[in-house]
C-alpha cells in the first residue's frame, strides 16, 4: 500500500510543479502545438483570407510530388549543402589547427574569423550583393571580368554557397578549437619522440580524436544547410532569372505560405523537408557508428 503524503510533502510537490509548469507550458505552446498544427494544416486546404481549413487528406502532397518546382528546390538545397558543409568544415579545421598553436595575435585572428557569425544577415547580404555586382562589384573590377555571379543560373548557386561557407567558418572553427584543446598533449609528445611528422600526427592523432566534434559539426551543418532561407531571400531578387535554380525548399515554403497565402501547401512542404532531414539524420547516425572514434 502506498503511504499517504504528509501536508509538507504535498506542499513540496506543489512547489515543484509550480517551478516546472512554466517550462512545460513553454514546450507545449512553442514546440508540440506547432508540430501537430503543421501536420493538420498539411492535410487541409486553406480557407478564404487564410481562415478556416477544409480537410482534403493527402491532396496537397499529391500536388507537390507532381510539381517540378518542388523537386528542383529540393535539388537546389542539396547542392547548397554539398558546397557549404564540406568546404566550411575543411577550412575551419585547418584554421583551428593553425590557431591552436602558440603565436602572436592568436586572439585577434580568432576574432576576425568569428566576426561573420555576429554580423546581421541583412548586412552580410548587402555586402556580398555589392561584391557580386556585375557592373560595379569589387570581384569583377579586381579581376577585370564581367561575370553575372548571382544572375547566371549556371553559377548563381555556387555563389550563394560561397557566402554560406564564409558565414559559418567562424562557428565551425570555434567548435574545432574546443575539441582540439581536449586532446591531451602527451599523445603529440609521444609521437614526436617516435619521429612522427606533423602531417602524420594530424592524420593519426588529431583526426581520430576530433571525430566526435567533427561529426557533431557535420550533423548540425547538414541540418542547417537543408533549412537555409535567409541567403536566398536577401541576396536573390524575386525577378532574378536565376532564382528557380537557387531557391531552397524553405524558400518555396515561404512562397506558398506567405506570398501565395496557401498555408496547407506550405505545411506540406515543411513535412516533406522534415521527413528528408530525418532520413539524412538516420544515415548520419549509421555513419557515426563506423567512423567516429569515442575514447
Keywords:
two-stranded antiparallel ribbon; 2 strands; 295 residues; 2 domains; MetI-like fold; single chain; 2% strand
Please give a quick description of this structure.
The protein is built from 13 helices and 2 strands. The chain is an all-alpha fold and 295 residues long.
What do you see in this structure?
This protein has 295 residues and is an all-alpha fold. Helix 1 crosses helix 13, helix 3 packs antiparallel against helix 10 (211-226) and helix 3 packs across helix 12 (249-259). Helix content is 73%, strand content 2%. The chain contains 13 helices and two strands, in the order αββαααααααααααα. It has two domains: 7-59, no CATH class; 60-291, MetI-like fold (Orthogonal Bundle), CATH 1.10.3720. The chain is globular.
CATH architecture verdict of the largest domain: Orthogonal Bundle
Low-confidence stretches: none
Strand percentage lies at: under 5%
Number of strands: 2
Which structural class fits the helix and strand makeup?
Answer: mainly alpha
Rg measurement, Å: 25 Å
What is the overall pLDDT average? Answer: 88
Write the layout of secondary structure elements.
Elements: H1 7-42, E1 44-46, E2 53-55, H2 59-65, H3 68-99, H4 106-118, H5 121-132, H6 138-143, H7 156-180, H8 185-193, H9 198-209, H10 211-226, H11 230-235, H12 249-259, H13 263-291
Amino acid at each position: 500500500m502506498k503511504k499517504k503524503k504528509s501536508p509538507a510533502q504535498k506542499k513540496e510537490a506543489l512547489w515543484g510543479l509550480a517551478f516546472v509548469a512554466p517550462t512545460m507550458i513553454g514546450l507545449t505552446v512553442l514546440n508540440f502545438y506547432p508540430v501537430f498544427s503543421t501536420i493538420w494544416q498539411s492535410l487541409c486546404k486553406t480557407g478564404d483570407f487564410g481562415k478556416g481549413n477544409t480537410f482534403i487528406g493527402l491532396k496537397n502532397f499529391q500536388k507537390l510530388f507532381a510539381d517540378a518546382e518542388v523537386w528542383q528546390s529540393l535539388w537546389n538545397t542539396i547542392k547548397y549543402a554539398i558546397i557549404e558543409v564540406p568546404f566550411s568544415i575543411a577550412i575551419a579545421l585547418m584554421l583551428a589547427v593553425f590557431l591552436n598553436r602558440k603565436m602572436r595575435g592568436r586572439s585577434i585572428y580568432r576574432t576576425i574569423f568569428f566576426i561573420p557569425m555576429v554580423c546581421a544577415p541583412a548586412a552580410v547580404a548587402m555586402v556580398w550583393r555589392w561584391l557580386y555586382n556585375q557592373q560595379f562589384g569589387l570581384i569583377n573590377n579586381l579581376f577585370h571580368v564581367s561575370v553575372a555571379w548571382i544572375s547566371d543560373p549556371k553559377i548563381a548557386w555556387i555563389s550563394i554557397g560561397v557566402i554560406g561557407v564564409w558565414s559559418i567558418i567562424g562557428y565551425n572553427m570555434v567548435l574545432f578549437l574546443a575539441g582540439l584543446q581536449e586532446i591531451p598533449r602527451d599523445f603529440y609528445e609521444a609521437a614526436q619522440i617516435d619521429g612522427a611528422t606533423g602531417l602524420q600526427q594530424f592524420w593519426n592523432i588529431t583526426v581520430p580524436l576530433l571525430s566526435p566534434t567533427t561529426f557533431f559539426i557535420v550533423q548540425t551543418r547538414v541540418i542547417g544547410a537543408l533549412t537555409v532561407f535567409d541567403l536566398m531571400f536577401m541576396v536573390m531578387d524575386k525577378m532574378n532569372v536565376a532564382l528557380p535554380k537557387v531557391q531552397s525548399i524553405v524558400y518555396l515554403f515561404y512562397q506558398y505560405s506567405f506570398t501565395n497565402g496557401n498555408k496547407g501547401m506550405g505545411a506540406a512542404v515543411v513535412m516533406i523537408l522534415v521527413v528528408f532531414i530525418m532520413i539524412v539524420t538516420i544515415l548520419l547516425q549509421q555513419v557515426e557508428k563506423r567512423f567516429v572514434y569515442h575514447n
